[in-house]
Structure formats: C-alpha cells, structure tokens
Design a protein that fits this description.
It is built from nine helices and no strands. It has helices at residues 2-22, 24-32, 35-45, 49-64, 70-106, 112-139, 145-158, 160-179, 181-203. α4 packs across α6 (112-139). It has one domain. The protein is mainly α.
C-alpha cells in the first residue's frame, strides 16, 4: 500500500513539474499579467502548452502499461509528438480566439441572441476535439494528423457525456488556478489531466485497441 501511494505521489509531482516547465511562458503570463489586457500574448503562448499536455498523456499511458519512468516517458512523448501537438494547439487557439472575439463583438447586439449560442457550441466542440486529439496523439504518435482530428471530432461528440466530465474537470482546474495557483500547479494539475485522459481514452476505444485505464 505504501509503495502504491508513493508511486502515485511521485507520478503526480514529476508530471506537474515537467508540465509547468513545458508551459512556462503561459504560466508566467498568467501569474504576472492581467489576462484581459495580455490576451494577445496568451494566445501566442497557448499553443506551446499542447506538446507538454500530450507528453503528460504519454506518461499516463506508459504508467498504465508499466513502461518508462515518468520523466523518461514525458521526454520520449515530447520528442515523438511535439510537432503534431503544436499544430493542434495552433489550430485550436486560432479558432478559440475567433470565437471569443466574435462573442465579445455580438454580446450587446440584437444578433447576439442568435449567434452567441452557435459560437459557444463551436468553442466547446473545439475544446473537446483538441482534448481527444492530444490523447489520441499520445496513444498513436505515428498516426496521420488528419485522421487524429477527424476521429477526435466524431468521438468527442458521440460520447459527449464523457467529454463533458473531462471538460468540467479541466474547468475546475482553471477555477482552482485562479483562486489558489500554487495548489493547482503543484498538486491537482496531473489529477485533472489524468481524469481527462482516462475519459478520452475510453472514448477513443472504437478507433484504438486500448485497455481500460487503471483508476
């Protein structure tokens, strides 16, 4: 029991530390600036987090399979996935910037009642597709990017209930970061990502030969 607890704590600490290092520009901007004014810089830094998140998902995969240590799995995952993960991050960030800017523009207009919900749906589908795409990339780094995104878009909406749980967990992590950034970065980040990874991994089972994740 003590060995299991130690391994879980070790996995969380190492994954959190490496994730912070890979997302350092974004973390620094969030901590030192007002996002309402620095959002263009945040938009530039956001895609850089995608490779680190994909590498964290690779860590979870390796640990579930009894593979490399967390540090080795992270760097191996980063090396194998960073190009495609960065492309996914750039695309998702561009779409979200357009959605948020459009929402701001139509918020007080009459057409906002019609366009607003449509933009929100586009934003949620983009976030869901991005999440599943990064998980799929961590599972199959050699797959074509087009196939990854297509499968992620279809399965994130088909199994929307799992996607909703994952997005709620990540939203709770964002809220915790706003109120208690040290705890969010140092303790709960890997737990929230693990829950999102496990749910997304299950959603991807129709296209990937996967075993259920260990709780």
């Amino acid at each position: 029991m003590y060995a299991t607890v130690f391994n879980v704590v070790y996995l969380g600490v190492i994954t959190n530390a490496l994730l912070i290092a890979s997302c350092l520009p974004m973390v620094v901007l969030l901590v030192t600036t007002d996002p309402m004014h620095s959002w263009p810089l945040l938009a530039l830094a956001a895609p850089l987090c995608a490779p680190g998140i994909a590498a964290a998902f690779r860590v979870f995969r390796e640990q579930a399979a009894g593979g490399n240590t967390p540090a080795r799995a992270f760097w191996a995952g980063l090396k194998a996935t960073w190009r495609k993960a960065l492309a996914i991050g750039v695309t998702a960030t561009a779409v979200m910037v357009v959605v948020l800017v459009d929402l701001r523009m139509v918020a007080e207009a009459t057409i906002g009642m019609l366009v607003g919900p449509m933009l929100l749906v586009v934003g949620l589908v983009t976030l869901a597709t991005t999440l599943l795409a990064l998980v799929a990339l961590a599972e199959e780094p050699g797959a074509r990017l087009r196939d990854i995104v297509k499968a992620a878009a279809v399965l994130s909406t088909r199994r929307w209930y799992l996607t909703a749980v994952s997005l709620l967990a990540l939203a709770a992590q964002v809220w915790l970061f706003v109120s208690m950034p040290a705890i969010a970065l140092g303790i709960t980040a890997s737990a929230a990502l693990y829950l999102a990874w496990a749910n997304s991994r299950y959603s991807l089972r129709p296209v990937l030969d996967l075993e259920p994740a260990v709780a």
